[in-house]
Structure prediction request, 114 residues.
Amino acid sequence: MNGETKNFSQLNEQAKQVAVKNFTTFYVHLYRTNNLEIISDKVDNTILWDIDRRLYSDKFELTDEIIEDSYNFSYKEYEKVLVHLGQKYFDNGNPELNWNEWYQKQYNAVGAGL
Prediction:
């Protein structure tokens, strides 16, 4: 890796798949802890509703199964989400900041009283 980063839309297809897979795992954990405010503030909520509807229907499955199903059934929606979040990626699709760090950075930037 040369250290240069790209926007999601600049990644090749294989790297996009890696990026979506990583984000899907992060998103499912946020969904299960009712902690989607930061994401929903940055993305059109109709996209998130489509993802969440599928997650709700799978709520009794094991977490690994939910992640796999969500990745398979909501891939296009996750791509749309990733375009809007402003995360940077390496050529292999791994994010510049791991998703927990990214989330904490976003959370810290929110003004008092939200």
User: Anything to note?
Assistant: DSSP finds five helices and no strands in the chain.
